[in-house]
Amino acid sequence: MSNGHAFAIEFPSAKAKYGPSQPFSPRKHANHRRSLPLTPALRRLSVMATKNEDDPVYGTRSALSEVFNNQSAMHVGPRVAVRGKPIDPTEPTEDELATLPRVPGSLPFTAYTIAFIEMCERMSFCGTIAVFINFIQQPLPDNSPSGAGRDGQSGALGMGQGTAFGVATFDSLWVYTVPLLGGYLADTHWGRWKTVFIASILAIIGHGLLIVSSLPALLTAPKSSLAVLLIGIVIMGLGTGSIKANVSTLMAEQTAHHKPKIKVHKNGERVIVDPELTVSRSYLYLYLMLNIGAVTGSSGMVYAEKLVGFWLAYIIPLAFFFMSPWVLLWGRKRYVRSPPSGSVLSQTVKLLRLATKGKLSLNPVRTYKNLSHPDLLDRVKPSNIPVEQRPAWMTFPDSWVDEVKRGLKACQVLSWFPILWLGFNQMLHNLTSQAATLVTHGLPNDFYCNINPIVLVMIIPLFDQFLYPYLRRHNINFTPLKKIAAGFLAATLAVVWAMVLQLYIYRLSPCGRHANRCSKPAPISVWWQAGIYALTALSEVLAVTTGMEYCFAKAPTNMRSVVYSLYLLMTAIAGVVGIAFMPLSDDPMLVWNYAVIAVIMLGGFFGFCIHFRKQDRRESLDAAAVVQVDPASMADLQK
């Protein structure tokens, strides 16, 4: 639907007084409604229909009906040439934009090539995180110079769990902090294509150093191997973090420039291909490719480490990453690319500094009220500042300030995501340990975390092909903020499920509340964890992909990478907050760990719903652009 305000017109008294020729049912006639812009004539017509009164301006009902006929003819008449130029038959008229159902368009091949690069990034991150723990913590097995455990435990440096946890935590925080730099470079200096290209080269160099650190000749000197590993992590993080900051926006831009077009299905149904729905589809399939990379990396690299050695585990993502620069070179002249915008970020900082001048106080309540005032940025629009008092850097129009306001609203939504990621991270780190206390049916305990990306790969097409089209057909407006709220609720239920399962483990384990140190598992199948991973996957489809889409839709065009980088930063913040829960992340406190996280997430769900209920209502109204009038009721009224 296009932007604007909706004004639905109903005719309850017209039906009773004038006796329509056939019963009127909004649901039955939903596909035959005509939609017209809200004009004074139509507004008065709706009032007369409900009050059975003549109008003081237009006069009698018949006179007003004549005005309506003249106005409707302007909107629903046949296409005509303007100034001798033929009309594109695929370009919808105003009436068709209002009445025809909307569908997402197919993604261009260039979009899938960009998604391939993100798949490589996830394969690298998830695979290396899975391998780092054993590589650093466990000692080199006997008679295995490559570190492969085969029938035993794989290992290399033997530096203990503390060092392994520290390196893995640093890697996660580094990868999710670097996007700020990558987003700044893309929006301000290099552009997205060049930034992703250079980042791919850096990722290749970093992976090369990981391979060097795992060579049998260097494993005999653990400190030297660790030093090379850390240098590789830093360089690789610069690459993969900068890729994450830009690749999703670059993919969405391949479809966002299109205009609405009419498409005729094989059954004769005419629909409108909506660019906004196409952008939403692009994020769904980007997330699908992302999770294909995640499951491939976390499973393939683990088995490569166990059967051959760590050097092969690091070569697998390198082989895929090596194709990324060539893919980007192929698409250099085929991609839709937004140019960098220069000093836009510094202008934004200066604008916010000017707007908040004198608004900060030692009283946090007063500061909150000042900063949340709806006119905070309107006061510093160029039109509200005399020319002689404007700063030299204020060279932008008022419309750009409105874009910054829209971007700040997106940042308000993103500020709630650390709560969501806090729950995700707790399950990511603790469910693997929980699986070791259950009956694993002969599979490694770290294999079952792959249920999450597998479920994601399965349900994303279901959402795209069935659920979302069903909601659109039935006029159910599942807004982005509603999707995010539903994602919060699904994640909360997943944590509650993990808490209940942990409670039963403590009850049934031979070692009671010390199940992690027990040689025998609790008599519970590990497949009871599948529900946790499924709810987490549902939450990611609803909240995470929508958060990505929301950043793209709300951010100023020349700041999309920076705003998306702030979205990624929420993951790093959640990781830092999660460190505070480490004392609860072991026996016998695990039930309390899940309980506290569940309470926090439930509070986040209700807080999000309450805080954004008005904004969601405004966005719902802005999503409706035209007045919908049923032709049967209108025909009866004009009689």
UniProtKB/TrEMBL annotation:
Entry membrane topology: Multi-pass membrane protein
Statement: the UniProt record of this protein carries the keyword Transmembrane: yes
Family: Belongs to the major facilitator superfamily. Proton-dependent oligopeptide transporter (POT/PTR) (TC 2.A.17) family.
Gene source species: Sphaerosporella brunnea
Entry coiled-coil feature ranges: none
Keywords: Membrane, Transmembrane, Transmembrane helix, Transport
Name of the protein in question: MFS peptide transporter
GO MF, one example: dipeptide transmembrane transporter activity
Taxonomic lineage: Eukaryota, Fungi, Dikarya, Ascomycota, Pezizomycotina
PANTHER family: OLIGOPEPTIDE TRANSPORTER-RELATED
